[in-house]
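TASK: fixed-backbone design
INPUT:
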């Protein structure tokens, strides 16, 4: 099953690496090492949680999240090249969700950003895949995702 998830994993790792490269200040050799470490961490993490016949099964387990907490797999790969969690939070979007599923890798920046597909391949059995949303808006979104301030959430207080 290792070969089966190679494309999805390399797509996900390359995407996070591109985000780091775009932020600047990290050398190419470090980025290459980060990408390889992340690929290895994902491969290990997904080993028994990859179900090509039921792609949505285990999706939550394979979801990579940065949401005021650093995803442990990204954190682990970053530690291998000497990047602290603090530095990662400066370099990566503060809200990032990356879904790595059989036949599809997609991401969302921000809690209510649009979901953008990075990789999609037809599933065996000829199920038609859903139409991809306009890619141009998605391509730019990750660039501006960091700059946009987080929305002001109103806290609801419950009084007893």
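OUTPUT:
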């Amino acid at each position: 099953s290792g070969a089966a998830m190679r494309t999805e994993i390399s797509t996900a790792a390359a995407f996070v690496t591109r985000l780091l490269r775009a932020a600047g200040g990290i050398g190419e050799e470090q980025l290459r090492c980060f990408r390889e470490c992340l690929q290895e961490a994902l491969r290990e993490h997904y080993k028994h949680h990859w179900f090509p016949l039921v792609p949505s099964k285990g999706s939550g387990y394979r979801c990579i999240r940065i949401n005021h907490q650093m995803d442990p797999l990204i954190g682990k790969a970053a530690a291998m090249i000497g990047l602290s969690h603090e530095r990662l939070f400066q370099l990566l979007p503060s809200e990032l969700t990356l879904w790595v599923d059989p036949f599809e890798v997609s991401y969302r920046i921000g809690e209510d950003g649009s979901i953008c597909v990075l990789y999609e391949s037809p599933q065996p059995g000829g199920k038609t895949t859903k139409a991809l949303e306009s890619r141009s808006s998605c391509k730019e979104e990750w660039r501006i995702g960091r700059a946009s301030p987080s929305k002001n959430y109103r806290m609801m207080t419950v009084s007893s």
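COMMENT: Residues 127-137, 139-157 have pLDDT under 50 and may be disordered.
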